[in-house]
Design brief:
Layout: H1 2-21, E1 38-47, E2 51-60, E3 64-73, E4 80-91, E5 94-107, E6 110-119, E7 124-132, E8 137-144
Antiparallel strand pairs: 1-2, 1-8, 2-3, 3-4, 4-5, 5-6, 6-7, 7-8
Length: 146
């Protein structure tokens, strides 16, 4: 009797589970760029036992002159992990501030970061950042979330 109940529950679950998931999750997410892709100059990279800190600065469209720091912690492989970041932008007497969390991974000699940024004005951004230590630069694609 217990076996029949388990089989019946398994059949019900196998029928209902796909229906519960069939609510548009397969659609792609389309984000708009908040500003054109920008390039910052990497000003320093400090390697530590537990983390690496990358600092950068440059001129951006929406946020003016930007200074940012990225703290990358390692996973077991030391080829990826989590990232926390903070930055300030200065434009026309205004100061924009933001902090971020996300992930990073190594792609050959480049470091790719994907982060969500919370800005002091309440806006939120998703950024994909590719850091190239060979050219001392990072390219940033900033997408509006809110």
């Amino acid at each position: 009797m217990k076996v029949l109940k388990r089989i019946a529950l398994a059949l019900i679950a196998s029928v209902w589970a796909p229906l519960a998931l069939a609510d548009g999750h397969g659609q792609s997410l389309e984000l708009e760029l908040r500003q054109p892709p920008t390039t910052l100059a990497v000003t320093s990279i400090h390697f530590g036992e537990d983390k690496t800190t990358i600092s950068a600065q440059g001129d951006t469209g929406a946020y003016g002159k930007v200074y940012a720091s990225y703290d990358l912690t390692y996973d077991a492989s030391r080829n990826s992990g989590s990232v926390k970041a903070s930055g300030r932008g200065f434009a026309e007497g205004q100061v924009a501030a933001g902090y971020a969390n996300g992930i990073w991974y190594r792609d050959a000699e480049k470091v790719v970061m994907q982060i969500v940024i919370m800005m002091n004005d309440g806006s939120q951004n998703f950024e994909t950042i590719v850091t190239d230590p060979m050219t001392n630069s990072m390219t940033i694609h900033t997408y509006a979330l809110k």
